[in-house]
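Here comes an entry:

___
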Amino acid sequence: MVMTNMNIDSGNGRREIPAALNRASWRQIPARPVDEWILSADLGMVNDFTALVGLHHKIVATGGWVADEVRHAWKENQIETLEVPFLERIPLGTSYPRQVEHIARILQRPPLDRATLCCDSTGVGEAVFSMFVEAGLKPTGITITSGSETTQPATRRYHVPKATLISCLDSKLGNGLVIASDLLESPTLKTELGDLQRTVSAAGRASYAAGRVAQNDDLVLSLAIAVWFAVGRVRNTVEWKNNAF
C-alpha cells in the first residue's frame, strides 16, 4: 500500500495529517513465538552453595491486535510465561569437576536436554568457567557487576549489573513467573525472595543483598540470571508491514 497524506479542513484552511497517522497504513508487529529452556547456575565459592534453576520460557500468540500509538504500528497480542520446574543446591564441599559432571548429567535429561546453560562466572574465575567449556556444555558466562551498564564483550559472555538482574526478576514476579511449589528448595527460594534488601545510594544507584533471615541469595541470583537471559537480553525483533489482517 502506498501511503499518502490526508487533508482535513480545520476551518481556517487545510492542513496535512502525516500518512503514518492513518492506521490503515500502519505496519504489523507479529508476536514472536518462543519455547526455550534455560539452566542457570550461580556457582558458589568454597563455602557457598552452587544454585541451579531450570526455567521454561514461552511466548504464544493469542490473536487480535493492539494499536501502538508511539510506533504507529499494530502489535499482535501474546501471552508470556516463565515456569520454574527445577531447583537444586549442590551440596557444600562438592569439587568443581564433580559439579561440572553433575550439571552435564542434568543437561542430558529431558526437558533440560534442550536448555541453554548460563553460569555466573563472577567469583569462581575463568579457570572454573573453562571447565564447562572443555566439557562441551557451551555455557554462556554472566559476570555480575556493580555498575549500571550491560555489555557483551564476547560471544556467549555478558557483563550485567546485579541491579539489572534483580529488577528484571522483580518485574516478572506475579507477572507470568510461576515457581513450582512442590520442589525441595522452593521454601528456601521464597525466603530469599522475601528477604532481599534493596538500598539506594546518594547517587541514586540501587543495590541488592541478602537480609538477616535468608543470609544467602544464591537461588535468587540463579533465578534472576535465568529470567534476565530469557527476557532481558536485547533480541532481534522481526517486524514487517502487512496490511491484510
